[in-house]
Amino acid sequence: MNNVKSVFILLLLAFSQNIYGQEINVQLKQDNSDCTGAILVTDSIFGPVSAPAGPGKKMEIRGSRTSPYSFHKEHHTVWYKFISPGKGELELTIIPLSSDDDYDFLLFRKTGHNICSKIQNNDLKPIRSNISRNNKNINSITGLRESAAQKYVNQGPGDDFSQSVKTEKEDTFLLVVDNVYRGGKGHTLKLHFSAIEKEPEKPVVEKKGPETTLMITIKDKSTGKLLNADIHLSSPTSKKPVIKKSNISQVIKKINSREEYQLTVNNKMYFRAITSFNTPGHDTTIHLNIELTKIEKGNKLKLKNLYFYSNSASFRRTSYATLRNLLSIMEEHPGLKIAIHGHVNQPYQWKDKNSDDYIQRLSKKRADAVKRYLSRRGISSDRMITEGFSNREMIYPYAETEAEMKANRRVEIIVLDYKTGNQ
């Protein structure tokens, strides 16, 4: 072993020792074990993730025991998707949380449409593979390295790493990782893109305009774990949806600048989320971290963008999208019973401006207004109760800015009971 390789192995061992003992921060779902449920990786390090259990809903990879282009079969798989930031070299590392786990992988470059179908039908060959036996001397680490000799490594004893991959800007890759053994502890994925050639600078006259990159991540509000949902992004200037994706937890897409958008995120077991935003007139990246609240007894949902006229229980025009969303949820879940809690903004330092009795009655009226809106549209009154909390539960007790006051002035929904089915 030469000195360069020795240093490389020592660095890998040191890094893997830091990974060992870390808690799992991403719990995989069955969907992530299939190509169509590939996890979109947007950072250089992803994980540690829970060990996949089983091959998913489909056995997408199956081949000869001697083939360097296929697993003999899927054991416990997880799929990843990532995009190259530019022209360069891709290296990656799969670091097991236990050296007893044996991870194999296949790497595909996306070409055209229906890539998952092509992979399942053996119409697309991987550009890299490593199906060699795990090497406990380096903590069973595997991956791609520029110094590796082979693009494909067969089953059995063999090289721990396969050759790195040349990339172009916005190349899309699909990586399937298979743990051969049952009961694996999990792993961390590390990506490294190194530029080998700087792209020529474009003259200013060629610039078409500002670019906005939208990154959407869906999580369970309670657990913080990634959550699959249906995503619908619309714009008044577009007749078709800008984004329409089903059963996915992460999306990256370039969208127009100086534009108004509305994002709807829906999972049938969670309260639907609707978010409106505007893109600026300059290059930017917008991260939307959408946290969905599960529909189950005791959970609380704050109705965002629900506004009233000052000192009134009358809705502002901009509130009706939120009210329609709540109405749809109540219609879709007939076994759902809720409490509607009204809150007002009355910072403690301004307490003398209105009486306690007045703001108590105002908070109750605002909750009643939401119930009245739902009742008039067919929702049974016995599925709803209302309560006013005055200013007793302000988010900002000493609010000074308009944003803080707006956060205090809110309506919240509490799940009292939830039965699935038409009960």
Task: List the main descriptive attributes of the protein structure presented here.
six-stranded mixed beta sheet, 423 residues, 3 domains, 5 helices, 60s Ribosomal Protein L30, Chain: A, Immunoglobulin-like, Jelly Rolls, alpha+beta
What is the CA–CA distance across the termini?
Answer: 70 Å
Biggest beta sheet summary: 6 strands, mixed
Q: Detail the poorly predicted runs.
A: 1-11, 13-17
Order of helices and strands: HEEEEEHEEEEEEEEEEEEEEEHEHEHE
The name of the CATH topology of the largest domain is: Jelly Rolls
What is the annotated CATH architecture of the largest domain?
Answer: Sandwich
Q: Strand percentage, roughly?
A: 25-35%
Structure description:
The chain is α+β, with helices and mostly antiparallel strands. It folds into 3 domains: about 5-195, Jelly Rolls (Sandwich); about 210-290, Sandwich (Immunoglobulin-like); about 300-420, 2-Layer Sandwich (60s Ribosomal Protein L30, Chain: A). It is built from 5 helices and 23 strands. It has helices at about 5-20, 115-120, 320-330, 355-375, 400-410; strands at about 40, 45-50, 75-85, 90-95, 105-110, 130, 140-145, 150-155, 160-165, 165, 170-180, 185-195, 210-220, 230-235, 245-250, 250-255, 260-265, 275-280, 285-290, 300, 335-340, 385-390, 410-420. It has a 6-stranded mixed beta sheet, with no helix packed on it. Strands 2, 4, 7, 9, 10 and 12 form a 6-stranded mixed beta sheet that branches. A 4-stranded antiparallel beta sheet has the order 15-14-17-18, covered by helices on one side. It is elongated and about 80 Å long. About 35% of the residues are buried.
